[in-house]
Amino acid sequence: MSADGEAAVAAVERVAERLERERDYLTELDSAIGDADHGGNMARGWASAAEAVRELDDPDPATVAKATGRTLMSEVGGASGPLYGGSLVFASVELDDGLTPESAVAFAETYLEKVRDRGDASVGDQTMVDALVPLVHTFKKSIEVDGLPPVVALAKAVDAAERGAAFTVPIRARKGRASYLGWRSVGHKDPGATSTLFVAESLLETARD
Amino acid sequence: MSADGEAAVAAVERVAERLERERDYLTELDSAIGDADHGGNMARGWASAAEAVRELDDPDPATVAKATGRTLMSEVGGASGPLYGGSLVFASVELDDGLTPESAVAFAETYLEKVRDRGDASVGDQTMVDALVPLVHTFKKSIEVDGLPPVVALAKAVDAAERGAAFTVPIRARKGRASYLGWRSVGHKDPGATSTLFVAESLLETARD
Amino acid sequence: MKKLINDPDDVVDEMLDGMVAAHPDRLRRLSDTQVVVRTDAPLDEVGVVSGGGSGHEPTHAGYIGDGMLDGAAAGDVFSSPTADEFEALVDACDGGEGVLAVVKNYEGDVMNFETAIELAEMEGAEVATVVVNDDVAVEDSLYTSGRRGVCGTILVHKAAGAKAAEGADLADVQRVGQKVVDNVGTMGMALTSCVTPEKGEPTFDLGDEEIELGIGIHGEPGTERTGTMSADEVTDELTESVLADLDLDEDQEVLTIVNGMGGTPQMELFVVNRRLQELLDERGLDTWDAWVGDYMTSLDMAGCSITVCAVDDELKELLAAPADTPALTVR
Amino acid sequence: MKKLINDPDDVVDEMLDGMVAAHPDRLRRLSDTQVVVRTDAPLDEVGVVSGGGSGHEPTHAGYIGDGMLDGAAAGDVFSSPTADEFEALVDACDGGEGVLAVVKNYEGDVMNFETAIELAEMEGAEVATVVVNDDVAVEDSLYTSGRRGVCGTILVHKAAGAKAAEGADLADVQRVGQKVVDNVGTMGMALTSCVTPEKGEPTFDLGDEEIELGIGIHGEPGTERTGTMSADEVTDELTESVLADLDLDEDQEVLTIVNGMGGTPQMELFVVNRRLQELLDERGLDTWDAWVGDYMTSLDMAGCSITVCAVDDELKELLAAPADTPALTVR
Ligand SMILES: Nc1ncnc2c1ncn2[C@@H]1O[C@H](COP(=O)(O)OP(=O)(O)O)[C@@H](O)[C@H]1O
Ligand SMILES: Nc1ncnc2c1ncn2[C@@H]1O[C@H](COP(=O)(O)OP(=O)(O)O)[C@@H](O)[C@H]1O
Ligand SMILES: [Mg+2]
Ligand SMILES: [Mg+2]
Ligand SMILES: [Mg+2]
Ligand SMILES: [Mg+2]
């Protein structure tokens, strides 16, 4: 197994562990403004993904990303299934020629684009997009403009995603179940933005190892 | 209105007031071993009966007893409706020639007989019969053998009924809903025996006035 | 406890009006009573009537219609109708061929119905009775007032109603009703107590880790209070009790009912049905038909009952015959 | 919270097996999926399919049968089925005349169904969609993801299924489904929260003196939390919201549904129906048919929703056409 492939499998496993630990918290967030299943959706989906990628022979990062996306698509119903899963499948092609700082940026950009396409949400709609946009923009700028090493860039991106997730609290939802609440959605942290942050944090931890 | 008729109406009113006060208590007893409605059944039925007898012109004790029985029959579903109501209608004929110590005894005996006929319960089955038998037997003996004045006889009968109601606690039910419980019925006071005691107590209070 | 009601004293009255408003072409309420009959009653055939306390909806009025009941009397919540009401019911459903009264074995119901029948017979009506006592949780002996009538009652309505619709005479209609009674057993359980509109609080206290087996449909305590169990364990307990009572031969064909008590979602009833069918299969019994739903409820109680009825060719024909009622349609 | 379940992870799987066990002659489960189809699918006519999260029983699989759905995909509790499952469903119900997918307007359902449809179309299938969004509690604007699909969905199943049974083509089946969507509105309320098997505790806290208006069928908070009200007041609130949205002409004929959320006994639904019909009458509307029961539930939530659908001759014919499904029979 290539070192990058091994790291990719480890990253998925790390995400799965983290989301299992955050299961109740994410479900609590989703109870307040949704239907109380985001924790279960994520924990279950990523646990299956970890199982699936562990079974790949000789995986590379693209295969791992694609298998993860496919598993999420078929294991997670709900909005987060096609958003996380479909976008991963699509973005994985950017890694076909291996994991480099450039391909990582392309992967992140494609992932974001696909989430926006499918969900039709913009920044400020109180969704995962609010965490994703600062994450991807900061990552791209740190690599392409500031020339920072990928791990440092990712750390900055995680900080940005954290602010993005926090930003969902004081605003009103326009997409997702929370939008049904109208003004009552103000004051709640979006579950999908929060899980996106947890995924990013787990990737960073793996990259640091 | 004859004095006896007036007293009969007052007695029904007094019973109605008492059972209204005991509504929750009787329902509580019925919750433990039945279906939690004896308090409502009695309070509602006797309140209607009080209304009905108040509307009689020139009532006598027999008419009051009959009207009370009819009202209970048509207002109270459940076991207590036909037991209390039907027996009263039937026993009322004993008062057709007026209220005397002798007719009062006959009334009580017929009432008891009718309850036993319809419900097929014997003493010791944890039903209203357990209060009625000592009540009627003591009343009859006090009048016919001991020659006591009716009010004194009734007071003794009430004491006897109280012991009868208490006697339902340590025994197992064989009739009524409590019988469904088998041995679990032991330890509970029978609602119908208890309401029978309350009725007798109200009659005694009226007789003393 | 919160409920969608107005004044508790009006709940039965308003419910009956609401039922008739949902089915004005089928149901008619006799004025000044709590009796509901089919709009075209009496028919030119044996009338089949039922009744009892309210709170068991869709029992009883929900089963009025072609192939089942001609009418039903509703008592107050959990209280038998009075003799007067039963009499009005019998009268309205008597088209000259006689009336079968389906009575659940509770002393209140039996005594009030008996009084009504005596009165109706004095007026020249011919009335026969079937007393349903399918609840195997209660010991049927000299030491009790006999077993309670519970969910098996629906099958008596169905068989007797189908027989009457065939134009059979009163004795024959009674015979098939009694045949169901002789072949059916039920046992129920509760996860929570019901709450009557009148009391507004649970009729009995059941801890968070407790369930009640052998519960009655009026919140009467059951035969045993135990710790919580899985759906499969509950199903095993109830089914074994019913089968022990029925004592069926191998390969016997049966109809089963998984009945919800009112507060239990269908999801859970289907989970129970899954295990029930598995168990019957293991026992070598042959499920001819399996019903799942709320047939005989106890207000908002959470829990279920399991009914097993042994069927022969005659009962199969009657139970599968067309019926068109608000709560049960067979075609 | 006590439930009749085994492992929460198995509840949907076991429920589906239990449903099929209750109706083995009508329902078939596609192996390795949570998709249920009629035993004889695909038919030689337009297939009508539906699906969504579980916990709304009898929705969805309860409506499979003659004159309604050909199949339905069940997601986990309150979670949309995955694209894979929807794809298997479409495939199993495509007899060559095309398939109408009835989708409730939730982003999860829509996105997963869309993905499935793209996949199925790549295989040459012809698929049309009707997106149901009858919940008037939600503002239908750029500021929301649109109104939710709730109890009105049943009427879409019914009308589209009846049209398909007539042998109409896909465009026509879609047209009548859409016609229902254009003429129906629903609003719900909760007395208590539902409890998901997974969480085992109420999804939201509602005080003893509080109710939630405009509740969703997944325990999503509603539009307003208020103090408890009488059944008549609740009915007035819900009905006025629906009527304000529909804006009907006087004498318009309507079909109404008083739908139970799963934990509310029928007694209370009939009390609500009584006031609903009184109110429509006051407003000069003409009730053509009134349904009362548990059609689109939210597990064990106590509460109800009120649906009003304006009907013309075509819809009346389709809604009254025969249907024979586990949960709805029309004859
Ligand atoms: N249209 C959308 N665009 C982007 N993100 C969305 C959209 N709809 C929902 N989401 C995200 O999905 C999350 C909810 O996921 P989840 O609870 O798993 O699915 P569901 O809402 O179907 O139950 C929300 O917190 C939000 O971040
Ligand atoms: N067969 C019977 N014989 C005598 N008394 C009976 C019989 N059955 C019931 N009772 C009496 O009736 C009482 C219950 O009355 P009530 O609660 O009003 O009716 P129900 O049991 O129908 O709800 C019991 O406590 C008991 O005293
Ligand atoms: Mg969610
Ligand atoms: Mg009682
Ligand atoms: Mg009672
Ligand atoms: Mg969901």
UniProtKB/TrEMBL annotation, chains C, D:
PROSITE patterns on file: DHAK (PS51481)
Task: Name the Enzyme Commission number(s) assigned to this protein.
Answer: 2.7.1.121
Keywords linked to the UniProt accession: Kinase, Transferase
Q: Identify the residues that the record assigns to the DhaK domain, covering every copy.
A: 7-328
Q: Which SUPFAM superfamilies match?
A: DAK1/DegV-like (SSF82549)
One GO term under biological process is: glycerol catabolic process
Top-level division of the source organism's lineage: Archaea
State the Gene Ontology terms under molecular function.
glycerone kinase activity; phosphoenolpyruvate-glycerone phosphotransferase activity
**Keyword Magnesium recorded:** no
Q: Which InterPro entries does the entry mention?
A: DhaK_1, DhaK_dom, Dihydroxyacetone_Kinase
Query: GO terms for CC?
Result: cytosol
| PANTHER family named among the record's database cross-references | TRIOKINASE/FMN CYCLASE (PTHR28629), TRIOKINASE_FMN CYCLASE (PTHR28629:SF4)
What is this protein's name?
Dihydroxyacetone kinase subunit DhaK
- Which organism is this protein's natural source? Halosimplex litoreum
At the highest ranks, the source species' classification is: Archaea, Methanobacteriati, Methanobacteriota, Stenosarchaea group, Halobacteria
Q: Which gene encodes it?
A: dhaK
